[in-house]
Amino acid sequence: MGRFEGRSVVVTGAASGIGEATARGVVREGGSVVIADLQEERGAALADELGPAAVFHVTDVCIEDDIAGAVAAAQREFGGLYGMVNNAGIIGAVGSIMETSAESFDHTMAILSRAVFLGIKHAGRAMKESGGGAIVSTASTAGVAGGLGPHVYTMAKHGVIGLTKSAACEMAPLGIRVNAVAPGNTVTDMTSALIGGDPSAHETATAAITAMSPLGIAGVPDDIANAILFLLSDDARYVTGQTLVIDAGQTTGGASQAFHGSKPEVLLHAGKRKGGE
């Protein structure tokens, strides 16, 4: 029996990257998944591929009703909600803090911070009704250290980690665990666009990330999804309020040589392109 047998999970940003790998993992381990994303073609295709254990729900995480609707879809289609993965994201506002507009700040925070708040809010309501569950949000190594992402992205990801701790305190008596993952550089369409100028430039992204990795390997979506699946599952039944950093050791301090070489600036100071998470 799989770890998610008889359980349903909502994954935002599930049509690609880490979200897609997580959705596939839930179904692979016997669960059902609501693929909540704005990418209609990719999301619907993934749901078709995964079969009756998956449904696609068009979701703009900037809209509270859309997030509530994704939760309601899990209740309607699968009889309840066990897990929530707040994963949707963008790089968002980039450049000097002295030049960043309030409008781009607000848009970035709406997707990276406010949406996580709303995801925890609505998932928590559903899980309270059903007697418990697990929530995992995608933070970033930019949420545990400075200089690893644009300013607003960094602020938002620090906020995700703080909210994870705060919500975990409130929800523990309800049997709801709240955790986060903090991925380091991972080969996705977003990082490929950032490094190679094209979402499909995975080989270029892999080479650049490998060059700065203390372990000498590049992270892939499954590396992050496996951690999310662990935190969602009963294997982590004694874990709440935590952020699991998954970055090949880049933020341990022993990675300083990797960060100060000739290549890391591509990622660490890359506020020149937008992308999806």
How would you describe the overall organization of this protein?
This protein is of the alpha/beta class and 277 residues long. It has one domain (8-268): 3-Layer(aba) Sandwich (Rossmann fold), CATH 3.40.50. The protein is 45% helix and 14% strand. It is built from ten helices and seven strands. The protein has a seven-stranded parallel beta sheet with strand order 3-2-1-4-5-6-7, with helices on both faces. β4, α4 and β5 (133-138) form a beta-alpha-beta unit. The radius of gyration is 18 Å and the shape is globular. The protein starts with 7 loop residues before the first strand and ends in a 9-residue tail after the last helix.
Secondary-structure map:
Layout: E1 8-12, H1 17-28, E2 32-37, H2 40-50, E3 54-58, H3 64-78, E4 83-86, H4 102-130, E5 133-138, H5 151-171, E6 176-183, H6 189-196, H7 202-211, H8 221-232, E7 243-246, H9 256-259, H10 265-268
Parallel strand pairs: 1-2, 1-4, 2-3, 4-5, 5-6, 6-7
In short:
The protein has 277 residues and is of the alpha/beta class.
